[in-house]
Design goal:
The chain is mainly β. The protein has 2 helices and 16 strands.
Length: 244
């Protein structure tokens, strides 16, 4: 196993872009669009400013309404996150998590704030905590750019890198496992992709959530064209809808 450092990333020169996705719900014979997501990146000085927005379709709102926004920024040269926040409005929940990063010496410190409100707007959680780690550290937003920066073309099947991943709640380990090349059909077009799996563990051994798969275009853009994760019932897929 390779424990990644910031130098593992081979690119951080992302251009300004807007990536759009349709979110599909699959369960047995059910295959229906449940929402949309948009991922944007803008260069601002030495930083890459990122945002992910996701919302459920009106039919899905009746079961579980989602209006999520993830914001963050990354130092392009070192691929170090500066801050990350998740504003989640899911069902009756209203949550706001934020991580501000500091880099004293070789350590990565995350100053975390977690707040939550009930359906009447009453503050029911207001927590602060500090996370610390050594080595490459990402969050659920910068992880998507980190995975696009890796040199898959030079890897053998089953090659892995492991990095730290922060949420507002805890520190975990994220292992990115390369599963080889595969053609993926998106809107009736076959795209040559690198297939990877995200494996989340709390201590390097105990899984903290289900694995997530991603298929990244095997070209210079390294576009995430398909992502897939399990739900308690069925699974969810995010399919790229932009220009290929």
């Amino acid at each position: 196993m390779l424990t990644a450092t910031a130098k593992t990333a081979v690119r951080a020169d992302f251009k300004d872009e807007t990536l759009t996705y349709k979110v599909m719900y699959k369960w047995g014979l059910v295959h229906k669009q449940a929402g949309t997501a948009t991922l944007t990146a803008k260069n601002h000085g030495d930083l890459l400013i990122t945002r992910l927005t996701a919302r459920s379709e009106s039919w899905a709102d009746r079961f579980y309404r989602v209006r999520d926004t993830l914001n963050g920024s990354i130092i392009r040269e070192t691929f170090r996150p500066v801050y990350y926040e998740k504003i989640a409005r899911e069902g009756s929940d209203n949550k706001h998590d934020r991580v501000d990063y500091k880099y004293p010496g070789a350590k990565v410190i995350g100053h975390c704030t977690r707040r939550a409100w009930d359906e009447k707007g009453k503050l029911v959680r207001d927590e602060k905590r500090t996370l610390d780690a050594y080595g490459t550290t990402v969050d659920m937003l910068s992880a998507f750019y980190y995975m696009r920066s890796l040199p898959y073309a030079s890897w053998q099947k089953n090659h892995v890198v492991t990095v730290n991943i922060y949420s507002g709640k805890r520190k975990e380990l994220l292992t990115i496992k390369y599963l080889g090349e595969k053609n993926v059909k998106v809107d009736n077009k076959s795209i040559k992709c690198y297939h990877i799996t995200f494996i989340f563990t709390s201590d390097g051994r105990t899984k903290s959530s289900d694995d997530m798969d991603a298929w990244i275009s095997a070209d210079s853009r390294h576009l995430p064209v398909k992502l897939e994760g399990k739900l308690k019932v069925g699974k969810v897929q995010c399919l790229y809808t932009g220009k290929l």
